[in-house]
Amino acid sequence: MAGMSPDASTQNSTLAGHLLDQFAGRIARSRRPYLLGLSGLQGSGKSTLAREMKAQAEARGWPTEVLSLDDFYYSRSEREVLAHQVHPLLRTRGVPGTHEIELLLSLLAAMPQASDKLPVSHPRFDKGRDTRMPPSKWPNVARPPKLVILEGWAIGLRPQTLAALDEPVNALERDEDPDGVWRHWVNKQLRAYQPLWRKLDALIVLQAPNWEIVRKWRSEQEEELLARHAPLAMDAETMVRFLAHFERLSRHALATLPDLADTTVEYDDNRHVIALNHS
Questions:
Q1: Is residue 275 part of a domain?
Q2: Phi/psi zone of residue 106: left (φ > 0), alpha (ψ -120 to 50 degrees), beta?
Q3: Is residue 254 part of a domain?
Q4: Intervals of the chain under pLDDT 50
Q5: For position 108, which CATH number holds?
Q6: DSSP conformational letter for 205
Q7: pLDDT confidence of residue 56
Q8: Containing domain of residue 13, as a range?
């Protein structure tokens, strides 16, 4: 995370080492790339932790790749099609149904055979421009990884019950999805993510205290981008609307993912680790 204090940096280093220690035996014994899911809501620091885990894993002699679910968002033009064909709220990236899961699955299948002659490239999403970078700028994997870390805000999440979809959770749903078309479609799309979750060898969940803290963390990130005059950084009002798209499933994740995780990292309001729970 930008602007991380020395204490936070030390915490991340220690946490990364602890998590790798926990799964080291399984990673070492695996005959194929070990797929480790790292799930955390917006602003939880999962991308920073994933990078630290990669650095430490490679220091242990394990070739490691980090894949971000965010990099598999459909392009802006593809989401425009979804907005016209299904529901206008799908113009905004984020919810299940706005990722190209088939591409991610095919990349995971190809990675064990990666080589200099047949490198495997994977997409990068430019959030500033809200679309994918051109394939010429995609990173290449030129060797089979020992460890693959898949990080994202919805990793491991299961669909909600249909009854849970009845009532809107915020003004966005009440005003712009009054008949529930968007939320029912998104929930149905989440079923298509389950084959990917079943490929996970283990799941780590970074657990925030509550949705209000998640919203605060994510807004702080955007304020840093605004201060740096980043392209298309969101002002406070735009950020509130953007986060409203995530609220339903974020609350669902907070309530359900710890029970599905191999390890849950509990944070306090200031992102200090207060507990590590292993299943």
A1: no
A2: alpha
A3: yes
A4: 1-5
A5: 3.40.50.300
A6: E
A7: 98
A8: 6-270
